[in-house]
Write a structure and sequence with these properties.
The protein is of the alpha+beta class and 100 residues long. It has helices at 11-21, 82-97; strands at residues 2-6, 35-42, 45-52, 55-63, 67-73. The chain has two helices and five strands.
Length: 100
């Protein structure tokens, strides 16, 4: 699943905001009980691994000049929640890159 979020901040500012707020991602999972691990294998890509409620979901965030793309690999058993997950990513993804 790919969820693009447009921005007008430029890559450097988006990277800075994502790096400083990546610890907040676990709070966006219902119940706030997720274990989230993030790594930056490339300056324009943040990989993430989310473990919650006995499920593991991997994905990445790709930083582009005018958008941030969240790519999430939902297991087939969770494909029915894709619209809800996409909506949550749009809402909370905006918060991750918004000014404090």
């Amino acid at each position: 699943m790919r969820v693009p979020i447009p921005h007008s901040l430029g890559k450097e500012e988006v990277r800075r905001r994502l790096q400083s707020r990546s610890h907040e991602i676990g709070q966006f999972v219902p119940g706030g009980m997720a274990d989230v691990t993030t790594t930056w294998p490339h300056e324009d890509r943040m990989d993430l691994s989310v473990k919650a409620m006995g499920q593991g979901i991997d994905g990445c965030v790709i930083v582009e000049e005018d958008q941030v793309i969240f790519e999430i690999n939902l297991p087939p058993a969770l494909s029915f929640v894709e619209p809800m997950v996409a909506g949550a990513i749009r809402q909370h993804g905006q918060k991750l890159i918004a000014p404090k």
